[in-house]
Design a protein that fits this description.
The protein is an all-alpha fold. It is about 80% helix and about 0% strand. It has 11 helices and no strands.
Length: about 290
């Protein structure tokens, strides 16, 4: 019975891990690319978003670490068993969760400064977070090449999905006058990021399933197809934003912001579904290779 509890909890914990990572890294990338167009309110919002997401990420990383002990013991109370916690330090899952938390801790420290040293520390924190995803899990099955694919994939998806909240804030904030400029620039960067995202994702998926048969006749393949369905849906909305709604901002700013905000809300919901399906793939479903 207790094992079933962890089977249920693990995907939810992993989903929050993904959310905190994407929001933090995405907000940092959004700030890096577009800060010269920020007004004071957007600058404060992005700084606050990075801070809150980093603090949340730090604690969810600790929870993920304790969940390793819980899984080892097979009971809910195992998560606070000292001997199992010490044993978790020797596992790759435990080290991954701690590296994840350390990455966020470094970013939290970097928030309190604004010089080159602190910006470098922020980059180190991002690297730690990305590496935490590839030292454990399915990507380790196929060696260094698969791990590189995952790092690139996560970095690119962070830019895209992690930009939803800042863009939504701009739609809601009437004092933000440069939404059309940032949206247009975002679309230009997104072409490169999303192309890299799709290429790495498709290659990694092929490596994991090995063929069409596994995609259709295995649970891993079925969940992967469900994820691809949601990805297709969110790509369609992204295309709508780029080719219809962003140009509308120039013609009718009020109507454009209203429709863009609605589209972003749908994209956020689909993102949560994608992340939850991904968490199931990484925690609860074996690959066609049986791992």
């Amino acid at each position: 019975m207790f094992f079933d509890v962890w089977t249920i909890l693990n995907p939810f914990i992993k989903t929050v891990v993904y959310i905190s990572a994407l929001i933090t890294i995405g907000s940092i990338l959004f700030h890096f690319h577009f800060s010269k167009f920020f007004d004071s309110e957007l600058a404060k919002y992005c700084e606050s978003l990075i801070k809150k997401a980093s603090i949340s990420g730090f604690f969810i990383g600790l929870i993920a670490f304790l969940s390793v002990a819980g899984n080892l013991g097979g009971e809910l109370s195992s998560a606070i068993n000292v001997s199992l916690i010490l044993l978790s330090l020797e596992t790759l899952s435990g080290k991954s969760a701690l590296l994840f938390s350390v990455g966020f801790f470094v970013i939290i420290i970097s928030i309190f400064g604004n010089n080159t040293c602190f910006n470098f520390a922020k980059s180190i924190g991002v690297i730690f977070i990305l590496l935490s995803f590839v030292i454990v899990g399915h990507s380790t099955l196929k060696g260094f090449s698969a791990q590189i694919l995952i790092v690139i994939h996560l970095f690119c998806i962070s830019f895209w999905l992690g930009s939803f909240l800042p863009l939504k804030f701009m739609c809601m904030n009437e004092n933000t006058k440069k939404l059309s400029i940032i949206s247009e620039k975002f679309g230009q960067y997104a072409v490169v990021y999303i192309s890299s995202l799709l290429i790495t994702g498709l290659i990694f998926s092929y490596i994991m399933v090995g063929g069409i048969g596994s995609l259709i006749f295995t649970r891993y393949g079925n969940f992967l197809m469900l994820k691809l369905f949601f990805v297709t849906a969110i790509l369609s909305l992204g295309a709508l934003n780029k080719f219809r709604l962003v140009p509308l901002l120039e013609k009718n700013y009020s109507e454009g912001t209203k429709k863009l905000k609605t589209s972003l809300q749908f994209e956020i919901v689909i993102t949560l579904l994608i992340l939850f399906v991904t968490s199931i793939l990484t925690t609860s479903v074996s690959t066609p290779m049986g791992v």
